[in-house]
Amino acid sequence: MFDARAAKALGEGDHLTVDGAPGLRLVATATARTWTYRYKSPVDGRMRQVKLGRWPAMGLPAALAAWERRKAERDAGGDPAAEKRAAAVEAKAEHYTVRRACADFLAAYKNQVAPKTYAEAERILTTDLVPIEDRVASSITRADAFDLIDGKREHPVQAGRVRQLLGAVWDRALDAGRLEPDVPNWWRLVLRGKLKSKGKKVKGKHTGVAKRVLNEPELALLIPWMPNFSRDVADALSLYLWTCCRGAEIVAMEAVEVTDEPDGLWWTVPKRKLKMRRLPLLTDLRVPLLGRAEQIVRRRLAVHPQGFLFPSRGKSGHIEQKALGVATWSHAPGCELRPEWVRPRLPVADFSPHDLRRTSRTLLASMGCPADLAEVVIGHLLPDDQGTYNRHQYDGERREWLTRLSAHLEAISAETRPTGR
Known about the structure:
This protein has helices at about 5-10, 60-75, 80-95, 100-110, 115-125, 140-150, 155-175, 215-225, 230-245, 245-250, 290-305, 320-330, 355-365, 370-375, 385-390, 395-415; strands spanning about 15, 25-30, 35-40, 45-55, 200, 205, 260, 265-270, 285-290. It is α+β, with helices and mostly antiparallel strands.
């Protein structure tokens, strides 16, 4: 017979059985007493256990009734524990919408990327998924995925980003067990390799995807013309050429990062500011400041001895990289923005600030700089195992080749006379 006093006295991990009810147990944990049915599965012969209810809320008569139902299911060839688990998963899946899957992904993604990258992902996963956001994630079909991505074909870069993000959302949901393992990740499969960019549009026409490099005659016109920009823009664009650094690194330069050392002026860009900062082998980038780069930085340090060298009242505290692109475009020969504004026009057409970094990398190659060393100069990691085993810092080589580059740029700019504002 079942003894209530014995049930109360059970220690953690102990259990009681009931005569005439094989497999029915009252199992004790640290905080509860639970009725369970323990049996051998007719499906695979393994021992299974299914919970029936808690004692004393479920008394012996109710426990026996529940046991009889589960035993009947087992005797009929069923597996009560597996069926209960499947029902729970199905009920859970019915409430796991696309919106919920995206929210789970973004919660984890926020601490993995820069705020700017996260903000763009959040915007895409909030505004671009309206047709499917309330759908159950597991119900999304291949056709659903195709229609959503194909509908953005006119903007292939954006379509590719949506596809990439949703693929990551589904990967995480599958890894976390929020989706069943047999749910396909259609986002990784549809239109793979078929979303090719046509390049930027100028006046409604695609200009192609070629990477622009300015030739020496164009540099001979551009460099003397740069004072026609504002001082901030002219200085930043010059630093693209003289340091080979990225715009995001240049506009965020801080006084504390610049040091006078025995061999000259150095700028140490912290790893946290670099584009590839999540790569474990990446270190702080050491950039020697030579020629015009040294002149620009020393002049700005005299005005801004603390904080950012390109300060702004904006949220970041420094001017934004996009301001350089806007300034370049607004002075372009074909720009029709604010036609009433009379301003000097660039002598070189169709280039962006980042093209200046690519131009200097190309000049290094034309000057005979070895390819691997040129990659180091512009802050790229060495390929394959070289980056793992070769931990040389290349300070001397950077200074040597940026010295040569500075002299070459000065020689180019001397080929034409500067124009007035």
